[in-house]
Amino acid sequence: MQTINGKEVSKKIREELQNEIDQLKEKGITPGLSVIIVGDNPASKTYVKSKDKACKQLGMKSEVHSLDGDVSEEELLNLIDKLNNDETIHGILVQLPLPNHIDEKKVIEKISPNKDVDGFHPINAGKLLVGEDTFIPCTPHGIIKLMESENIDIEGKRAVILGRSNIVGKPISLLLLEKNATVTICHSKTENLKEITKEADILIAAIGKANFVKSDMVKDGAIVIDVGINRVDGKLVGDVDFDSVNKLNGFITPVPGGVGPMTITMLIYNTVIAARRLERGK
Ligand code: NDP
């Protein structure tokens, strides 16, 4: 298979974003992202650190609010309220998952839809569903950009998505449908999974199960996008058994270095859009 290099694609897009950020700054607007993290989940801490670093590298304003794991829901909602009203902050992101005593739905709905750079607010998710301009969720958007970087034609293709989460499976299905793919969504209750995945021209794996997709589940010549991030013996591996699937023809994204870098890049992209909207609204 041919590997799609997410780091390289990401670097190119970040260069374009750098220009936009510089132009906005000349007009007195520094795109600002505020990330809230609750508790000390090690994976969440790593993601937040990478987001902060990437924003700062591009000269954006970036702030991280680290709250104790036992913070009250009210305190968290109050902080979001404050950031909703902070003119120097264009994007707000609450790192998920949240501790059990906090209602994730309430938190997502508290973020102003105009600053919801993750695209998780029901208003933005609804806009995506009906095809209106919105903040496209970062990981699915990154997947589309990866395919575009290789000039992969999506129209008319049979796309099979493994996973139906609100953050990956559902939105990537909508984006592929919008691009005229014929889309099938699979989940843990799907029967005869292998028969379905074998038909995919585009196979997206987003289930969170290490090395789940083996070569006998993949059609020769398919485009295989591996969203999974799993830690096995201290190493990061995807949902696709890379070594076996890589022996086929087609395209594949590696883990790490595939979808992961794109997610952060598209988060920056959404924050720049939010800042630009403000500039246009002036
Ligand atoms: P969720 O746990 O929210 O969803 C997993 C989905 O996979 C569910 O819909 C579930 O089905 C389905 N599933 C589980 N087991 C199977 C199975 N055996 N066969 C078919 N479907 C199955 O995960 P996320 O969508 O949040 O994340 C998926 C993976 O992607 C994780 O590894 C996560 O770490 C990674 N990720 C990576 C990102 C990146 O930037 N690269 C960003 C976001 C996530 P059901 O609905 O029936 O339970």
Brief summary of the model shown:
This protein is an alpha/beta fold. Helices cover 42% and strands 16% of the residues. The protein has helices at residues 6-26, 42-57, 73-84, 104-110, 122-130, 138-149, 169-178, 193-197, 242-245, 259-281, and strands at residues 2-3, 32-38, 61-67, 91-94, 158-162, 182-186, 202-205, 223-226, 230-232, 235-237, 251-252.
Please describe what this structure looks like.
With about 280 residues, the protein is of the alpha/beta class. Helices cover about 40% and strands about 15% of the residues. The chain has a 6-stranded parallel sheet with strand order 1-11-8-7-5-6. The termini are far apart. The mean pLDDT is about 95. It binds NADPH dihydro-nicotinamide-adenine-dinucleotide phosphate.
Overview features:
282 residues; alpha/beta; Rossmann fold; 2 domains; three-stranded parallel sheet; 10 helices; 11 strands
Number of helices: 10
CATH architecture of the largest domain, by name, is: 3-Layer(aba) Sandwich
Instruction: Classify the fold: give the CATH topology of the largest domain.
Output: Rossmann fold
Number of structural units classed as domains: 2
Envelope shape: globular
| Major β-sheet annotation | 6 strands, parallel
Going by helix content, strand content and strand pairing, the class is alpha/beta
Main β-sheet, spatial strand arrangement: 1-11-8-7-5-6
Q: Bin the helical content.
A: 40-55%
**Unreliable segments of 5+ consecutive residues:** none
CATH class of the largest domain: Alpha Beta
> Can you list the ligands bound to this structure?
NADPH dihydro-nicotinamide-adenine-dinucleotide phosphate
Report the strand count.
11
The CATH superfamily title of the largest domain: NAD(P)-binding Rossmann-like Domain
DSSP strand content: 15-25%
Average pLDDT figure: 97
Rg result? 19 Å
Q: Give, in order, the helices and strands.
A: EHEHEHEHHHEHEHEEEEHEH
Amino-to-carboxy terminus distance: 49 Å
